[in-house]
Structure formats: structure tokens, C-alpha cells
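pls design
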């Protein structure tokens, strides 16, 4: 783990290596770890803000262990390329290399987002058979992406997601509910919240089928006392915004309403291509983006960005705009490749995303220049959990649920 902030003198502060084992009879003295202390400090600061928002990207799903060895897991962009490549001959009737040549995509550029973007352009210019072939490829590629991201099974073990959500949701009821924005299509956070018995307001109604309505985000849940007079906000509730859609969303072709449908054959997703920006401003994504932008403008707001590569301009640009204009914002960016890192079979380390991504470069410069609002932590989502503060002890209900789950009972 490494930290870059206004207090680290413009350098990545590294955590201390483990001490050597003590000799027989030697008394060891605990050493203060400055990197860990700094990470604890900045994380505690943003969790104490009146408003707390989290932006979670692909990195929060990559470490999820499959139910069994060899089972499905979260795909990387490279995995999606490989899956599409393997089935192109069967689905399109021509080799993958020949198809790339037909749409003018470089063979060595294994970027599925760039390929789908080029296919959409080709569809606009091709005619007849060539256009039909590209449309067939796009449809098959999108089915492949949707299938690959539907990897979460009921009761799949998600300990890191579960603990993260617990700590995110257990804020004082006097503060605004925490808001979790995610670009992921999968159901990691929903399944983890179900297992932890947390309440999630995702904009969908309690009716069957559950129907999306942005006004649902304005509602809260209270518990009524036995006398019918006293009402208290329930604990353990947070808002979930899936800004790129979800594998269990489906648009009704007649009413145009968005419903939750398990194992949908037509999931409502913003697929990876350069038109993501335009699609993000169509319903229901428009409401998600608007909520994200409004949240960034609030006073005393803590923003935690984890596992997000800052490659989506429609999300990265509002963040930088808020950094420039909102002095009441505190920002922590977490990722495993922010700082320079070693590369196998290479003497020179890779520069790290904070030195290559145009948005992260600006944030790192501000931190090095002494902007106390901004901190970068070079750590994975799983490793981050040890620095996420647990502001409230487990409730009696949470302890009860944990005991019953340990016995293998369904509650």
C-alpha cells in the first residue's frame, strides 16, 4: 500500500515491511506505520463528512472468487475480447481477423470498446450484406458481454463487499444517506447487501415487477413505534445508482418503463463503445448522472473512488469540475496501479496510472501541490477494507444474522 497526499512531500509514502521475527526472549515494540496512519486519517475524514458518495468501478469485482474452481468470475476487457474472438467464426461466418480487416480495426489493438465503436461507424456507411454482417457481430458481442458479466450466484461468498457496505451504510441517521454509484453491470453489491440484511434504495418500486422511477430516491424508510407515534429512520440503508445499467434491468417495449427481470434476455446496458457519453444522457441513465453531478456539488461531501480507471469522460470530467469549484469536497482515489509498479521480465517499472491517465495526473499534481482535499491510495479493493472506518459497532440484529448464517441456516 502507498499513499500520496498533501502531507507526503510530493512522494508516494510506502507502508513499512514486516519486521524480522524476534529472537528468543526478545521483547518486540510495535512500530508506527506512517503510510497506514495517513490512509486511516484520510478515510476517516471522508466518512465523517455530512455527505458521502462512492464511485465503484470494475476493480471492485475483479477479486470476487468464483463459487467453485474454474467457475465464472468478473471478466476484464481483455477477457471480453478473447470471448468474442473465439466465437466470431461461428456467429458471423468469417474469421475474426477477416472481420477486423473488413471494419478497418487494427489486429494488434485488442480493445473491445474501440472495436464496437468502429462497428457502429461501419454500420452507418456499409450497405446490404456487409452492414448485416456487422450488425450480427455487434448483437452477438453485446450478448457475450451481458452473459460474461452475469457471474454472481445466489449466496455467493462476498465478504469484502458485505463488510464494505456495512461500514458505508452504518452512518448516523442525522447525516445524509450514503450514495453508491457503480459502473458495473453485475449484482455484487445487491447480493452482498441482501446477505448482510442491508436496505438498498436503487430507484425501483416495491411492486411486482419492480419499476424504476427516479422519484423513489427521494423516499426514505422509517420504523414506527408500537404506540404509533414515534418514528425513527431505520439504520443500514444506502442509495445505489448503476450508471451504466444492470444485467437484471429490462425496458418494456410498449410502456418504455424499466423493470427488474431476473436472467433478462435483453438487459438494459450501456455497452463499451465511444457513444457511452451520449447514451448516459438517456433515461434512466440521465437520472443517475444527474444525481452524481448534484452530489459532487454538495457542501462537506466526501468522495471515495475505488476501482475506477477514469476512462469514462462523462464521469471523470464532473469529478474534476467539482474539484475545481467545490472547496467543501474531500476526495480519495483508490486503485492497485496508481503508483509505479514492477513489471515481469522488465527492469524498468511501469509509470502507474497517476502518471499516464490525463485525469489522474491532474489530481496527483494537486495533491503534490498541497491540496489537502485530495489523496490517492495505491491499494486494491480487498486491501482497502482495513482502512475503511467502522463507525458503529455491530447491532444486535447483525450479530443474530451472523450467528444463524454460521450455522448454515437461511434467515
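designed seq:
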Amino acid at each position: 500500500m502507498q499513499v500520496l497526499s498533501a502531507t507526503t512531500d510530493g512522494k508516494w509514502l510506502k507502508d513499512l515491511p514486516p519486521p524480522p521475527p524476534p529472537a528468543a526472549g526478545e521483547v518486540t515494540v510495535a512500530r508506527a506505520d506512517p503510510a497506514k496512519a495517513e490512509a486511516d486519517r484520510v478515510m476517516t475524514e471522508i466518512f465523517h463528512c455530512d455527505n458521502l458518495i462512492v464511485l465503484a468501478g470494475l476493480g471492485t469485482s475483479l477479486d470476487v472468487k468464483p463459487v467453485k474452481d474454474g467457475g465464472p468470475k468478473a471478466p476484464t476487457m481483455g477477457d471480453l475480447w478473447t470471448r468474442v474472438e473465439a466465437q466470431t467464426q461461428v456467429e458471423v461466418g468469417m474469421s475474426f481477423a477477416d472481420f477486423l480487416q473488413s471494419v478497418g480495426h487494427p489486429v494488434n489493438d485488442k480493445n473491445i470498446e474501440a472495436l464496437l465503436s468502429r462497428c457502429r461507424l461501419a454500420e452507418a456507411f456499409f450497405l446490404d450484406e456487409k452492414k448485416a454482417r456487422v450488425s450480427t457481430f455487434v448483437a452477438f458481442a453485446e450478448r457475450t458481454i451481458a452473459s460474461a458479466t452475469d457471474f454472481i450466484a445466489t449466496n455467493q461468498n462476498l465478504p469484502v463487499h458485505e463488510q464494505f457496505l456495512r461500514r458505508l451504510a452504518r452512518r448516523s441517521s442525522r447525516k445524509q444517506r450514503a450514495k453508491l454509484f457503480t459502473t458495473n453491470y453485475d449484482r455484487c453489491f445487491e447480493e452482498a447487501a441482501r446477505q448482510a440484511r442491508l436496505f438498498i434504495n436503487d430507484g425501483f418500486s416495491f411492486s411486482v415487477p419492480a419499476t424504476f422511477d427516479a422519484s423513489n430516491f427521494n423516499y426514505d424508510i422509517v420504523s414506527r413505534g408500537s404506540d404509533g407515534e414515534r418514528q425513527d429512520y431505520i439504520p443500514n440503508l444506502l442509495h445505489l445508482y448503476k450508471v451504466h445499467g444492470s444485467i437484471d434491468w429490462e425496458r418494456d417495449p410498449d410502456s418504455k418503463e424499466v423493470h427488474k427481470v431476473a436472467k433478462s434476455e435483453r438487459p438494459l446496458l450501456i455497452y463499451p463503445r465511444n457513444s457511452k457519453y451520449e447514451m448516459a444522457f438517456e433515461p434512466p441513465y440521465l437520472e443517475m448522472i444527474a444525481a452524481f453531478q448534484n452530489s459532487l456539488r454538495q457542501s462537506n461531501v466526501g468522495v471515495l473512488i475505488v476501482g475506477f480507471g477514469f476512462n469514462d469522460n462523462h464521469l471523470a470530467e464532473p469529478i474534476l469540475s467539482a474539484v475545481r469549484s467545490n472547496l467543501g469536497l474531500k476526495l480519495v482515489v483508490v486503485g492497485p496501479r496508481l503508483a509505479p509498479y514492477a513489471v515481469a521480465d522488465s527492469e524498468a517499472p511501469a509509470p502507474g496510472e497517476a502518471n499516464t491517465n490525463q485525469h489522474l495526473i491532474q489530481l496527483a499534481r494537486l495533491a503534490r501541490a498541497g491540496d489537502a482535499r485530495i489523496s490517492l491510495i495505491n491499494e486494491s479493493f480487498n486491501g482497502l477494507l482495513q482502512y475503511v472506518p467502522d463507525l458503529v459497532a455491530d447491532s444486535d440484529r447483525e450479530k443474530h444474522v451472523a450467528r444463524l448464517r454460521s450455522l448454515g441456516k437461511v434467515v
